[in-house]
Amino acid sequence: MTSESTVGEDRYIATGGQRIRVNVRWGSGVPLVLCNGIGASLEVLDPFVEQLDPLTTVVRFDVPGAGGSPTSIAPYGFPYLAWVLAGCCRSWK
After folding, report:
1. Is it the case that residue 1 has pLDDT exceeding 60?
2. Hey, what's the torsion of the CAs at 37, 43, 49, 50, to 10 degrees?
3. pLDDT for res 12
4. What is the pLDDT of residues 59-68, one digit of tens each?
């Protein structure tokens, strides 16, 4: 179980056969996508996001097995994480 971020709006997105927790702080323009470290939940980035321009859309996600996302269905590696991120980016709108 994870606590909700105090910044942005949490939601769950289905991508690649799994459920991924995504947080979006809505703004305008091109979104800034932030990736936290493996094993850390997206809340670790709350202090950083709070310091960014409030008009910037910021998107974060819990990698599989961290925070509010269930354990991975596939072995970890950068190609897999990039694939999960791409699925999240296509779905968050």
Report:
1. no
2. -150
3. 92
4. 999 888 888 8
Q: In terms of pLDDT, which residue wins out, 18 or 55?
A: 55
Which residues, at least 6 apart from 21, have a Cβ–Cβ distance to it below 8 Å? 2, 10, 11, 12, 42, 61, 62, 67, 68, 69
Model pTM? 0.83
Helix (H) or strand (E) holding 11: strand 9-15
Q: CA angle 27-79-85, nearest 5°?
A: 20
CA distance 72 to 80: 10
**DSSP one-letter string for 35-92:** EPPTT--GGGGHHHHHHS-TTEEEEEEPPTTSTTSPPPSS---HHHHHHHHHHHHHH-
